[in-house]
Amino acid sequence: MRAGRTAVTSVAVVGDVVLDVVVRVRTPLAATSDTPAETVVGRGGSGANLAVALADAGCAVTFVGAAGRDGAARLVEDDLARHGVRAHLLRAGATTGTVVALVDEYGQRAMLTHRGANGALRADAVTAALADDVTHLHVSGYTVLDGRTRATAATLLARARDAGWSTSVDVCSVAPLRELGSEAFVAATRATSMLFANAEEAAALAGRDDLDGALDALAEVYGEVLVTRGPDGAAAVRGPERAVARARATTVVDTTGAGDAASGAYLAARLAGDPLAVALEAAMAAAARVVGGLGAVPYSRE
Q1: What is the C-alpha separation between 18 and 66, in angstroms, rounded?
Q2: Residues 138 and 169: beta-carbon distance below 8 Å
Q3: What is the pLDDT of residues 31-51, one digit of tens each?
């Protein structure tokens, strides 16, 4: 937790329960033989990563997701608890989701995803698990992108809006967004007051290739928008207020989870009342901490 920061709000995060297997290949892939690699196995999930970043920034955080009755679910639950996140894992019949992230020599990754029990998430069960003092709801974009849980996401966001809570959604992945289509994504997330995306996701959702145009178009729908840009930093807009920040990372080992950490740190700062520029600096500091090692959450490496 950063010095001087106290919990100013209680945040509920709804997202995937995932076991991460991160593999960094050290030599060209030997298709029919052995290839030297470095591997990290641990708790993953975009929403869970964001929840940990929120807790590290001083927020009181409840994470809700669907998981199997297996060891992977217990690993996720234990890891979240270790980072100060109150976890409610709704047990389903399927196995806990798994993501294998393949990391290249530049720190960029491709992900192989088995969503498993995440498709069993239902709105009423999530609502029943939320803490009484919650005032902000964050929903992972993966919950929106999955056709089995899209209605759940839309219902939760609408309920939060009607209760007077602020809300946020992180787009999370450009390939399923393009497959779904921007109109369907917007329709499911229209009750959202804040949107987080990387540059590629923002362009696809807005139908604009230029950053300023994408920011303006998305801000008309969501009010406040954060766009992370990898080595080019980040930008945010809310009404007439705009801000940009440079990336801080000097060493990039693995970009897995960097956007989640940035979004969580940004959200925590904004909920604490910080202006966009200050929130962006917090986001860039959090992202720099993540990309310096293998795996999505730096705190698990300490």
Answers
A1: 9
A2: yes
A3: 899 988 888 888 989 999 999
The answer to whether residues 10 and 87 touch, using CB atoms and an 8 Å cutoff, is no
The span from the CA of 231 to the CA of 244, in Å, is 13
Instruction: Enter the DSSP assignment of 296.
Output: S
| 198 within 8 A of 227, measured Cβ to Cβ | yes
Instruction: For residue 58, give the nearest of 85, 78, 82, 88 by alpha carbon.
Output: 85
Task: Take residue 257 and report the two structure tokens written for it.
Answer: 């989870």
Using the 8-state DSSP alphabet, how is residue 14 labeled?
E
CA proximity to 45, closest of 243, 300, 280: 300
- Exposed/middle/buried for residue 80 (C-beta within 10 Å: 0-12, 13-18, 19+): buried
| Rg of the chain on CA atoms, in Å | 18
Give the chain's domains with CATH numbers.
10-297 (3.40.1190.20)
Report the distance separating Cα 106 and Cα 33, nearest Å. Answer: 23
The DSSP letter of residue 50 is: H
- Name the β-bridge partners of 236: 226, 243
Could you report the per-residue pLDDT of 122-172, keeping only the tens digit for each? 999 999 999 889 999 999 999 999 999 999 999 999 999 999 999 999 999
Cβ distance 46 to 16 under 8 Å? Answer: yes
Two tokens, residue 268: 């925590």
